[in-house]
Amino acid sequence: MSAGVKLEVAVGGGLTLRNPVLTASGTFGYGLEFEPYLDLNRLGGVVVKGISPRPRAGNPPPRLVETPSGMLNAIGLQNVGVDRFLEEKLPALRERGVATVVNVYGQCEEDLLHVVEKLAPESGVAAVELNLSCPNVKEGGLELGRSPRAIESITRDARAITRQPLWVKLTPNVSSIAETALAAEAGGADAVSLINTLVGMVIDVERRRPVLHRGSGGLSGPAIRPVAIAMVHQVYRAVKIPIVGMGGIVNARDVVEFLLAGARAVQVGTANFNDPGVAMRIVGDLAAWCAAHGIADVNELVGAVKGNQA
Amino acid sequence: MSAGVKLEVAVGGGLTLRNPVLTASGTFGYGLEFEPYLDLNRLGGVVVKGISPRPRAGNPPPRLVETPSGMLNAIGLQNVGVDRFLEEKLPALRERGVATVVNVYGQCEEDLLHVVEKLAPESGVAAVELNLSCPNVKEGGLELGRSPRAIESITRDARAITRQPLWVKLTPNVSSIAETALAAEAGGADAVSLINTLVGMVIDVERRRPVLHRGSGGLSGPAIRPVAIAMVHQVYRAVKIPIVGMGGIVNARDVVEFLLAGARAVQVGTANFNDPGVAMRIVGDLAAWCAAHGIADVNELVGAVKGNQA
Amino acid sequence: MPYNLTAAVERQEDLGAGYHLLTLAAPEIAREIRAGQFVMIGLTDIDQMLIRRPFSVALVSPGPDGGEPASIGLLYKVIGRGTTLFSRLQPGDRLALLGPLGRGFWLPDPALEAGGGDETELLLVAGGIGNAIFPLLLQELGPRAARTTLFFGGRGRADLTLLDWFEAHAGRVVTATEDGSHGQRGFVTAPLAAHLDADPGRRRLVMACGPHAMLRAVAELCLARGVPCQVAMEETMACGFGVCLGCVVEKREPESDFDRFVRVCTEGPVFDAREIVL
Amino acid sequence: MPYNLTAAVERQEDLGAGYHLLTLAAPEIAREIRAGQFVMIGLTDIDQMLIRRPFSVALVSPGPDGGEPASIGLLYKVIGRGTTLFSRLQPGDRLALLGPLGRGFWLPDPALEAGGGDETELLLVAGGIGNAIFPLLLQELGPRAARTTLFFGGRGRADLTLLDWFEAHAGRVVTATEDGSHGQRGFVTAPLAAHLDADPGRRRLVMACGPHAMLRAVAELCLARGVPCQVAMEETMACGFGVCLGCVVEKREPESDFDRFVRVCTEGPVFDAREIVL
Ligand SMILES: Cc1cc2nc3c(=O)[nH]c(=O)nc-3n(C[C@H](O)[C@H](O)[C@H](O)COP(=O)(O)OP(=O)(O)OC[C@H]3O[C@@H](n4cnc5c(N)ncnc54)[C@H](O)[C@@H]3O)c2cc1C
Ligand SMILES: Cc1cc2nc3c(=O)[nH]c(=O)nc-3n(C[C@H](O)[C@H](O)[C@H](O)COP(=O)(O)OP(=O)(O)OC[C@H]3O[C@@H](n4cnc5c(N)ncnc54)[C@H](O)[C@@H]3O)c2cc1C
Ligand SMILES: Cc1cc2nc3c(=O)[nH]c(=O)nc-3n(C[C@H](O)[C@H](O)[C@H](O)COP(=O)(O)O)c2cc1C
Ligand SMILES: Cc1cc2nc3c(=O)[nH]c(=O)nc-3n(C[C@H](O)[C@H](O)[C@H](O)COP(=O)(O)O)c2cc1C
Ligand code: FES
Ligand code: FES
Is the pTM of this model over 0.90? Predict the structure, then answer.
């Protein structure tokens, strides 16, 4: 770590991370799988795979396909469920002292709140990140996360049952992410994290079928980085709460780009698959980049982009 | 052209194209610039640069930046204006007998309808394609094309003043493209074309400024192809009118992918910059692909994707 | 524990018909890798390749001074974008490399392998590039390799890469090609079935690697005859070390609803044919 | 009319410090290209490179049997992803190539070039890799090249690529480096200004290529002294043939609001310094 550069960032709800680099949900397992490749304690934090009330088997394969500078996934939120998570995974993470953000998924609102409630009394939960990709039955079945009204109401409900820092993860598949971010803020979120994956599809032209068994999937990786940067910047101009940015980060330059756009912290996702040591290397490179650019405190970069803002 | 494969496609409003491969607005000039590289008459059609009521100078540079498997542009709709278009460009295109689709842009609804009106009496306009990326002042300044209500109303207005086939070009920056497509259909569009570019931004971390002078721009190229395929497929399941698909097409395989997803015709965009002869080569390769796969009529492919449709 | 490193290309041999043998300097992996395990390889520049590609280690070889294994050989076929890029690599170029990964083949319980004559007969079945998994197995088997039989199928003679090597190292090689250009015409499962039926009482273990349809046919043959069978599976992988959950295959007898899938990269790639749905 | 073709790499020469000279077999282009024009080059695989890159043609050379120009030489500096990929190309590899493109330099009105002694003095100004545009100009000038002066600036000696070639082909070469490792220390505009001021009455034409800041300084020097000046501009290009409208620069005196910008790829890359805002 480059001596003298302050990397700590405050991301709302009283949570301070030792540096702005976390790993994204669904791309870092439960964290422990990465111990052969890096020191978890060198990371700003770890966001675990989305946790649902009951274990989920996920979708049949194929679940993945490479796309130009990206990938599509339709894992189907395979996870051990909240009970096993609390028994097996959280204690190990707590023991290691790594800032653990728990990504929460439910097939309906009650499910989601059930997990939040189970997590609420636990120590070692740095923050709860709500993944609102479940269908919004009340409003015609589109994802919950596409409706500002639904976001505000579920955030408020979650806020009422936990004192843990509460992050709302925003989908990019909306007409105005500033609106959904404002809804999360109004509902009492301590931070918003963005972006989740874009909906995409690849068709195998020989078989005349989608490559993914489920049909469509979520697009991630460098292909979506320009979209993510634009959205972080839009949200930065709309809300007052901290932003956790992600989408296509592969190196320290990309982290700086997100910070300049307005993110207080970032998450590294798909790149972890390419190189399980990448997140820790990025932390080191970020410190070195700051030092080389005469930046004493990484917070100086947050939202510091100048010029036209359209 | 592979003997025997029927390539003609009917794209609504009585318009039949000699094959499904057009070129996308803003990526093919006024068509004539490509004559050194290909035979315009071999294409299904040409969509010209967005035409506005008056000439537009466009944005100051930089206007472009490469991104992973894509590019961002903020040209600012530089164009000669409808009068010079009708005087200088349309007659030359008409003379060549190439199916010419005129992309129409206005800074407000009146502007847009003004251009539609000027085009209405002209022969040699195969179709009018409405680009609804102007701000929707009535609904808070978001792009017109993001509001189903605004789309339906302007489509209806345009419908009332022209008998030329009317296409509505849809933006992907919406919560539900099925809804905006349905709005266009309800307003009387003969076809919908999609997708326009995704909003994106790249920041130069050394200068701490967006690379593009305007700040954000439109993302195009192979990076967005999975998003485009998913959207074409969603729209195919929602509307009855033909779909003209685009987004990241670089070869005949990609064209087949769009047809299978539900497009009746396609537009080749960014790839024209890489190789000005690409669109014509794709036409030939598409015919050869059909022949090699025992497909007698390219229409057999339209919407023929099977399997899970999520 | 897998190593995450960059390795230099030592050799790139073009074997014709799109097959290549790529030798990388990777002593740590060469020493620890076991037959059936694999590595993920990628270009060092992530902008050129976001997702690494999985490859079996075909061979290990000692360093210039002999002694301990120091290099790994990957036998691969050019399929798409990734393998095309790999095929352009020159000696001295560097690759990103993660391995050894996964669970390889396992040999019969030593307790069963009592006296001389009673040894389990090892039958290897390769379809096309599936042969890439077997040189390392034969290397590991040592003297026992000479008592194995390799059933080796391909579309034509050109797909039977390293055939000379196998003829020198396996006890016997039985070939079958779809176009009849080498060995019996047809699928390799025909001579395999004939062999299994010729001496049905014999204790055997079949180890198979190749296209999915071949694995399914081999597994059916074996299961029908009660012959133990290990199959090396392929599924699209993003990580190779168990976290993306992309590479799953279906279990034959899940214990619970949650337990429906297993990961090829971690629980496999080699599975007992009875474990999974083929 | 530009040719749209693929061309084979004949040679890739590493000139050190990140500079390369790439020679391509492209007889059509070699015969027609004029100094200051450029080509767009790309990999043949669009998946590896979506947007082609613009490069001046530095040199043309005849085929093996002498005679007509058959190859073009591109002198380039490794900057980012594209040039890194180009630097790995080997003889025999193929590239996608479009050209000749744009408007090159133009020589003084022949009517002005009356008798011997009255010839316009041609002053070439190169900053760093901007020198790439001048060998072709000197080739075109023929015997007149010996009466030109090249002002050649760079950060250090390593940036003065092909210096020996220029010393052999231009009349005189005046160098300046920021670190003082060759010629005068500082910017190349200092010796240029001194030269212009030494004999202010002389009829001259300055032709400049290099970083934007250098072009601006050169143009100011010239405009202040009424010396005609041609500048070769760079702007990000997607197409190179006038259709993407990405590569514009601002006109100094637009005739109308609509006319504010000109395209570097079509109206340039060489502009009269009076035409555009620098
Ligand atoms: C455990 C394992 C071991 C393997 N060992 C070998 C080997 O020794 N030799 C060899 O030639 N091949 C082997 N393969 C297959 C090899 O990984 C693919 O041929 C290769 O990934 C193709 O990459 P591509 O970019 O050229 O093809 P593309 O089709 O362009 O690849 C697109 C994507 O699909 C994936 N993919 C394509 N084919 C396969 C496949 N058959 N299995 C899994 N993913 C695939 C790629 O990894 C990539 O992510 C192995 C696969 C697995 C899972
Ligand atoms: C008309 C013209 C002639 C040129 N001639 C030469 C030459 O003879 N030799 C030489 O070394 N360079 C020349 N350049 C600059 C050269 O095009 C860039 O250095 C090169 O494109 C960098 O590509 P990259 O992928 O390595 O860099 P990256 O920075 O990765 O490129 C990213 C994008 O920015 C563009 N870009 C980057 N730098 C420049 C630049 N200076 N000008 C325009 N676009 C840029 C690239 O084309 C690409 O689209 C010329 C530029 C122009 C416009
Ligand atoms: C395989 C995979 C699984 C994912 N699973 C989850 C998940 O369980 N919950 C969630 O909120 N996001 C999930 N995501 C989204 C990522 O957390 C992240 O938002 C997205 O991938 C963009 O970042 P990236 O481009 O760096 O990968 C997943 C992404 C991938 C690639
Ligand atoms: C430089 C550029 C200019 C464009 N100008 C227009 C335009 O004037 N009107 C319009 O409707 N779309 C415009 N587009 C969008 C394209 O027509 C197309 O919808 C988009 O680029 C997706 O296709 P592609 O990925 O094949 O390029 C432009 C795209 C580019 C890259
Ligand atoms: S490849 Fe990622 S879990 Fe197996
Ligand atoms: S580069 Fe496209 S118009 Fe100049």
Answer: yes
